[in-house]
Recover the amino acids of this structure.
């Protein structure tokens, strides 16, 4: 059974058909990249999966369970986490707080416990802190010492991206949806991200779906590539095959005249 | 467009809502009328006139709210106080004139001076000659009026509209312009503070008591006409208010649809950034919006004062909030919506009290309840556009 | 550990100080001022949960306080105050049954009825719960609406709650415009309010620095991201409203006891405005700020009375023009100091000109009756508060404390967010490819 499955999903906004009958399967442990020209519907796909939008038609299944129509926090609780194309961190909160909040839904205790600081609560706090540091450790010690207590808005851009990824991991998800994880990064940082995504899968056991524009990253890391254009899947498969697919080339570069 | 509402799930159409609301209203009214034996045609007409007047006043105030909101997405809590200022300016204009000449000169200069400074942003006054050409006769006229005449209500209305408009633009300059670009909640808080400031300044300067406002004008002479066996009693005000309101609305409509500045206003309301890129002076447009809104509020204030015979510094509170509710009910950001909402609220207020006298204690609560209901179920109002958020 | 000792020491000192205060001669006004500070701090802290931490502008707080105030008053009203004349608008049912003594008897807890303090504890809790229930209802629109629309809805609710007690049907439970007089004042004393204040502080700081507090702030920072990270927005928003309303109700009950009466004018929109100024001044989102802001604003309110005494008009005119000239000077100073160019803009000159002109005019017309007349500066304190709020919004929106809280670490302790020498060296080593041959590979890469 595929970890994530989209069956015949349609989504329109007013007159614009953003997603036009997309079928997609993602197996556990895969790294799948979704590429396509701008406006092809890639972020909309993420929004549909995570519950921000509801498909007009079609179903979305996660671990065999139907999830279309659920609220984003419900989807998260089932095990899907995402990052955002334009970074949506809790800007005035510290790195630590940013990585603790996604664990809140797994707290399992009523707020009275929090106020009274019961032993059960204190234990959970310890555990959550440990988890937070564990996720941040993916990126080395850089976010774990003094930066831990700095508000994320003072961090460098790359550090903020890293924090967002750590945050997504901290939700306890099995499936990570990364929306342009290397946007705005220079080649060296992009290399690093590539390694890290691979480590997500290898060490962390996550399944990763990413939307990306940088083909070197896509090529190096993907098990499978899916190409979207105008809301439709126009190609799927191994990276080398896909980029030679004439339809894909046409989508990116336009049709040759004559 | 900024986010105010999360994705609406209930499909409520404009025409449908309007139809339902009006149908319910008429049904209620009709049912109740036939249930009350002494509710004669005369009473219906009487109430109608009252409702039309009240509704017109609400509509005028609501327009100010809706225009400002449409342009800068600010709920100008202090608009009710502008309304109050309008009434007071007219009061002083009628009671204190003719002024001793020195004072008249001073006031004219003050008014002219402030107006000039404030409206520098209003009218692109690059050529001083043009300014002088326009302003001078106006100022002379004002001086003459102030110094040599006991002002009648129309002149007082006119002067008050000018003075209040200047005050409105001054308010924007001092309190709201520094906060352009700030989060909306901050602007709302500032508006609330401005409202409190003006209320209490009013109490300080004008005195915290009610002043009678009963000018011997044609408006206050009691009139009546017969319908069947009954007499319908009213004063001239009830006829004049809807007339003046109608006139102002026509002027406003003409301005907004047919003039260049009006077009600039509509463009800015849609998208201020793009309007700027198209060469619209957004500062000017915003100042102009406050100018016009305050003018209308002043007119409403004067007519309200004449209608109810008194003024006091807190008179703007309740009508202000109700007019705001009316603007939201009609569809905030929409000019016809404001008028519709104002009239609707006026009619509901008068007829409910008349038909269900036991509910008269809840008169003020109605506006709030309606406001909350509309915001919950149809935030775009009866004829507004739909508002959703994009992720 | 050190922090705990410091906090405990402060607590003991404060308690001693309060005890000393109650023993002092002629401290009556100071005592009541402090009592009011405690009461209104509770209300401010509760409002701060929603406006500051959750980031939702709520304008209906006076409604919650009113519910708490009325319920407390009704429940605690002693027998002799319940005469049909005094409470003539109340229905007989309400007069007899809305009585805590009755309830206690019925539950077999009659012995508790002996102690006013015990009864107050119960009454306040009930008042808080009632307010919390309404808070729940008011919180529901927050699930659909945002920003200023939501603020208006909360305002509407607050006003509806304020207007209802006057209506004839509701007056059967509230005694309408007559209000309820003769409420016992035991809970309005310094010790009582101090105790409840401490409990409030404890509760809200525990909440703020817990996972739930973080969840609230996450919602404030970015609601969509919070939802994507698993935070159930509906639950948390409604929870915050309910908790906030509970404490507002308690504060209302305390105030009713302090005043020993409550009526339809006690909790009007000015109350919410007052609290808004307090928490904006202190810092939205900071509990310490809420207390600080409340104290300052109350200071103005209580001791500013002298501003409103009758004085000749020229005093005001000189004061205003003098302030304008001073403001101009201050602006020039600040702009010089911050190297802002140009230092003086036309609008500043206009401002100066108006000030100077006003002063000159006043001098010129000094002997005229207009300038000499005695003016009562009615509402001067409210004007001051309004001006203060506007200035805060324009010049320092984050208030005094911003979002941070007082902590011993601020004064003495180690700063965890500033790198030590050791940490900086390590950090540099990590990120500098010249020092670290592994930099640029894997997770030791730059920045």
């Amino acid at each position: 059974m595929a970890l994530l499955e989209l069956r015949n999903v349609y989504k329109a906004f007013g007159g614009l058909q953003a997603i036009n009958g997309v079928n997609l399967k993602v197996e556990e442990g895969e790294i799948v990249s979704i590429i396509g020209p701008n406006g092809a519907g890639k972020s909309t796909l993420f929004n549909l999966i995570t519950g921000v939008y509801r498909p007009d038609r079609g179903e979305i299944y996660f671990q065999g369970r139907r999830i279309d129509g659920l609220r984003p926090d419900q989807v998260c609780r089932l095990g899907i986490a995402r990052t955002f194309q334009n970074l949506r961190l809790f800007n005035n909160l510290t790195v630590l707080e940013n990585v603790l909040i996604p664990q809140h839904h797994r707290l399992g205790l009523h707020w009275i416990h929090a106020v009274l600081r019961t032993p059960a609560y204190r234990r959970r706090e310890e555990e959550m802190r440990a988890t937070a540091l564990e996720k941040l450790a993916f990126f080395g010690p850089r976010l774990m010492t003094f930066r831990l207590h700095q508000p994320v808005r003072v961090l460098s851009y790359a550090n903020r991206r890293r924090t967002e990824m750590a945050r997504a991991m901290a939700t306890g998800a099995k499936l990570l949806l990364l929306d342009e994880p290397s946007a705005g990064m220079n080649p060296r940082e992009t290399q690093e991200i590539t390694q890290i995504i691979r480590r997500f899968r290898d060490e962390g056991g996550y399944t990763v779906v990413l939307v990306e524009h940088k083909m070197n990253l896509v090529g190096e890391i993907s098990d499978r590539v899916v190409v979207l254009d105008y809301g439709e899947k126009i190609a799927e498969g191994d990276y080398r095959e896909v980029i030679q697919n004439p339809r894909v080339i046409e989508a990116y570069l336009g049709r040759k005249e004559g | 467009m900024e986010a105010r509402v999360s994705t609406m799930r209930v499909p409520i159409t404009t025409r449908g809502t309007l139809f339902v609301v009006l149908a319910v209203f008429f049904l209620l009214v009709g049912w109740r009328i036939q249930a009350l034996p002494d509710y004669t045609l005369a009473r219906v007409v009487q109430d109608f006139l009252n409702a039309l007047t009240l509704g017109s006043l609400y509509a005028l105030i609501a327009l100010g709210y809706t225009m400002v909101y449409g342009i800068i997405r600010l709920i100008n809590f202090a608009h009710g106080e502008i309304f109050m200022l309008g009434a007071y300016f007219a009061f002083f204009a009628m009671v204190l004139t003719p002024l001793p000449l020195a004072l008249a000169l001073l006031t004219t200069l003050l008014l002219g001076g402030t107006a000039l400074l404030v409206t520098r942003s209003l009218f692109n006054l690059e050529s001083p000659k043009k300014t002088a050409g326009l302003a001078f006769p106006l100022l002379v006229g004002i001086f003459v009026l102030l110094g040599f005449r006991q002002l009648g209500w129309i002149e007082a209305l006119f002067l008050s509209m000018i003075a209040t408009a200047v005050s409105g633009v001054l308010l924007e300059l001092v309190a709201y312009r520094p906060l352009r670009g700030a989060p909306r909640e901050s602007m709302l808080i500032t508006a609330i503070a401005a409202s409190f400031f003006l209320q209490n300044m009013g109490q300080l300067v004008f005195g915290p008591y009610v002043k009678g406002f009963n000018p011997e004008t044609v408006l206050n002479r009691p009139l009546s006409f017969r319908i069947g066996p009954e007499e319908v009693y009213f004063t001239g005000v009830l006829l004049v208010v809807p007339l003046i309101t109608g006139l102002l609305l026509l002027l406003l409509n003409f301005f907004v649809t047919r003039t260049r500045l009006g077009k600039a206003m509509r463009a800015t309301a849609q998208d201020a950034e793009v309007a700027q890129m198209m060469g619209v002076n957004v500062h000017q447009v915003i100042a102009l919006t406050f100018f016009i809104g305050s003018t209308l509020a002043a007119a409403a204030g004067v007519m309200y004062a004449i209608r109810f015979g008194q003024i006091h510094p807190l008179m703007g509170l309740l009508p202000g909030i109700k007019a705001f509710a009316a603007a939201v009910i009609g569809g905030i950001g929409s000019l016809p919506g404001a008028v519709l909402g104002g009239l609707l609220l006026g009619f509901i207020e008068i007829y409910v009290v008349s038909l269900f006298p036991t509910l008269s204690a809840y008169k003020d609560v109605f506006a709030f309840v309606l406001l909350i209901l509309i915001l919950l179920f149809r935030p775009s109002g009866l004829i507004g556009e739909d508002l959703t958020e994009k992720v | 550990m050190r922090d705990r000792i410091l906090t405990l020491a402060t607590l003991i000192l404060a308690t001693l100080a309060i005890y000393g205060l109650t023993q002092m001669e002629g401290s009556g006004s100071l005592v009541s001022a402090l009592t009011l500070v405690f009461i209104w701090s509770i209300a401010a802290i509760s409002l701060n949960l929603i406006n500051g931490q959750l980031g939702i502008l709520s304008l209906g707080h006076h409604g919650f306080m009113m519910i708490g105030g009325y319920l407390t008053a009704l429940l605690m009203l002693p027998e002799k105050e319940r005469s049909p004349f005094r409470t003539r608008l109340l229905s007989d049912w309400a007069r007899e049954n809305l009585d805590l003594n009755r309830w206690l008897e019925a539950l077999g807890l009659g012995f508790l009825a002996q102690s006013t303090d015990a009864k107050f504890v119960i009454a306040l809790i009930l008042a808080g719960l009632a307010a919390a229930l309404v808070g729940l209802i008011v919180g529901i629109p927050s699930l659909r609406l945002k920003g200023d629309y939501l603020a208006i809805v909360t305002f509407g609710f607050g006003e509806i709650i304020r207007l209802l007690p006057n209506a004839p049907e509701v007056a059967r439970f509230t005694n309408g415009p007559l209000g309820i007089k003769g409420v016992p004042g035991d809970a309005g004393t310094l010790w009582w309010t101090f105790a409840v204040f401490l409990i409030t502080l404890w509760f809200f700081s525990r909440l703020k620095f817990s996972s739930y507090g973080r969840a609230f702030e996450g919602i404030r920072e970015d609601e969509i991201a919070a939802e994507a990270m698993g935070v159930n927005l509906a639950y948390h928003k409604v929870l915050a409203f309910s908790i906030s309303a509970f404490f507002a109700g308690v504060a209302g009950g305390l105030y009713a006891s302090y005043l020993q009466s409550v009526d339809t004018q006690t909790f009007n929109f000015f109350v919410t405005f007052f609290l808004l100024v307090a928490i904006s001044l202190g810092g939205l989102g900071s509990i310490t700020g809420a207390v600080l802001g409340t104290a300052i604003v109350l200071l103005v309110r209580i001791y500013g009375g002298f501003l409103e005494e009758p004085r000749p008009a020229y005093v005001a005119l000189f004061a205003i023009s003098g302030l304008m000239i001073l403001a101009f000077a201050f602006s020039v100073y600040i702009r010089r100091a911050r190297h802002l160019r140009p230092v003086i803009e036309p609008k500043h000159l206009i401002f100066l000109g108006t000030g100077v002109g006003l002063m000159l005019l006043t001098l010129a017309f000094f002997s005229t009756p207009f300038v000499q007349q005695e003016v009562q500066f009615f509402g001067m304190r409210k004007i001051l508060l309004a001006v203060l709020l506007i200035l805060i919004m324009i010049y320092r929106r984050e208030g005094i404390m911003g979002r941070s809280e007082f902590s011993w670490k601020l004064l003495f302790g180690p700063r965890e967010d500033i790198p030590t020498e050791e940490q900086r060296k390590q950090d540099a080593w990590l990120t500098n490819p010249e020092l670290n041959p592994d930099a640029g590979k894997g997770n030791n890469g730059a920045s």
